[in-house]
Amino acid sequence: MPARLSLTRRSSFVSVLSLCTLLVGLALAPARAATMGDDGLHKEEWFTITFRDIAEDIQAASEAGKRLALVFEQRGCIYCRKMHEVLLADPEVADYIKANFMVVQYNMFGDEEVTDLDGESLTEKSAARKWGYVFTPTVVFLPETASTGMSVAQAAVATMPGSFGKWTFLNMFRWVREKGYEGDEHFQKYHARIIEQLRKEGRLGD
């Protein structure tokens, strides 16, 4: 009987050890590898491919019940890679953006044709210069309706330059979707309020 009990304990110990090893392995597993396009930019299958006519894209997003967001990236951008492999690989982040935004990718040094809200024909790289975007990734949030006679930079309701942590990134999309830019609560105040809620819920480790 003692020998049998010892064997049982040993089997239980091995099972627990195996489970711990598996959990550690999952925790240390690398982030999801993002798909790379021929242009050297990381891709998401739910990004929208358009003719990059900003007014038409704003209308298309509105008809789908969404908002238009432009994301500028460049080849070899390690922060763009982080955005795709960490932030956009998080279901909570990706699902919210997919449900509420039409995202169109721009190559900061690309040559695809772009039509600005003021009617000017540009390339992706000349548009980035005109609008003053120099960091990648940069996410540009457009209004619900197209504003003629002004550029994208003038019409944008918010701009997020660079790659941030999950909650800053996601909260900016939420703030725009909730039209926080029309109210008195600055994004930083909004973000701080959400962070405090998450702290109380014990979710800041997510």
If you had to describe this structure to a student in words, what would you say it looks like?
The chain has helices at residues 2-27, 54-63, 78-87, 91-100, 124-131, 152-155, 166-177, 187-201; strands at residues 35-36, 42-43, 67-73, 101-107, 113-115, 121-123, 138-141, 158-161. The strands form three sheets. A four-stranded mixed sheet has the order 4-3-7-8, sandwiched between helices. Strands 1-2 form a two-stranded antiparallel ribbon. It has a two-stranded antiparallel sheet with strand order 5-6. It contains eight helices and eight strands. It is 46% helix and 16% strand. Helix 4 (91-100) packs parallel to helix 7 and helix 7 crosses helix 8. The protein has 206 residues and is α+β, with helices and mostly antiparallel strands. Strand 1 and strand 2 (42-43) form a beta hairpin. The radius of gyration is 22 Å and the shape is globular.
Task: Supply database-style keywords.
16% strand, two-stranded antiparallel sheet, globular, 4-stranded mixed β-sheet, disordered N terminus, 8 helices, 206 residues, alpha+beta
- End-to-end gap: 47 Å
Instruction: Tell me the number of strands.
Output: 8
Main beta-sheet annotation: 4 strands, mixed
- Which oligomerization state do the chains in this entry correspond to? single chain
Rg over CA atoms, rounded to whole Å, is 22 Å
Strand-and-helix sequence, N→C? HEEHEHHEEEHEHEHH
Strand percentage: 15-25%
Total helices: the number is 8
Quick recap:
The protein has 206 residues and is of the alpha+beta class.
Layout of secondary structure:
Layout: H1 2-27, E1 35-36, E2 42-43, H2 54-63, E3 67-73, H3 78-87, H4 91-100, E4 101-107, E5 113-115, E6 121-123, H5 124-131, E7 138-141, H6 152-155, E8 158-161, H7 166-177, H8 187-201
Parallel strand pairs: 3-4
Antiparallel strand pairs: 1-2, 3-7, 5-6, 7-8
